[in-house]
Every structure is written in structure tokens, then in C-alpha cells.
Amino acid sequence: YEDLWLGGTDSQREGLWLWISGKRVPRNDWRPRGGRYENCLDFSIQDDLYKLNDYNCDEIQHYLCEKLNPESDSEVKENGNIDSATEDTTKFTAYKDGIY
After folding, report:
1. Closest CA to 19 of 10, 30, 27
2. What are phi and psi of 83, to 5 degrees?
3. What is the CATH number of the domain that holds 64?
4. Is 49 a member of any domain?
5. How many domains would you assign to the chain?
6. What is the mean pLDDT of the chain?
7. Where would I find the C-type lectin domain in this sequence (predicted)?
8. pLDDT of 2 strictly over 80
9. DSSP string, 21-90
10. HSE on the CB side for 70, CA within 13 Å?
């Protein structure tokens, strides 16, 4: 995928990027450029590297979700994953439809 939605926004205060959990989004590998009209966080490719980017929330893109790794001792709820990669105890899953 070239672009993926992540669960972050600065819709409450311009420039203050928060995950849907309320925690601050780290400022590394970041290339915001959209100003007040681009308030949703996506993961986009540039020069063969993925970077955090602000984007118009009305755009339709794939999205990335985080859930616990099923190989760990933790409980996991399935949500119809399509593609996934496992690393440590976290499983990241790309979904074909929706936002976040």
C-alpha cells in the first residue's frame, strides 16, 4: 500500500497530534504540510521510506490497526485481517476499507 490511515489527528488543536488513545504522536519521521485542512494522520511512502503525514480526513485509504500478537499470552479479538506482519508481541494489520 502506498498510503495508510493511522489513528491520529490534530482536529482539536492544530499542530497537537494525538493518537485516538489520547497519547501524543512522536515527531520523528514526520512531514506535515497540510495546515488546518489536513487533520488526519497517514503513513505515506516517499523516496521508498514511509513517513508520518497529515492528510485530508475525507480521503478513502487503507488503514493500519494495532492489536496484540496471537502468539503471545494475551487475548486477541479478530476483525477480519487481510495482510499482517508480526513483531514481538504486537501485530500490525492492514485493512482494505475504512478509516483508522
Report:
1. 10
2. -125, 140
3. 3.10.100
4. yes
5. 1
6. 72
7. 1-66
8. no
9. TSPBPP-TTB----GGG--EEEEEEETTEEEEEEE-TTS--EEEEEEE-TTSSS-------SEEEEETTE
10. 8
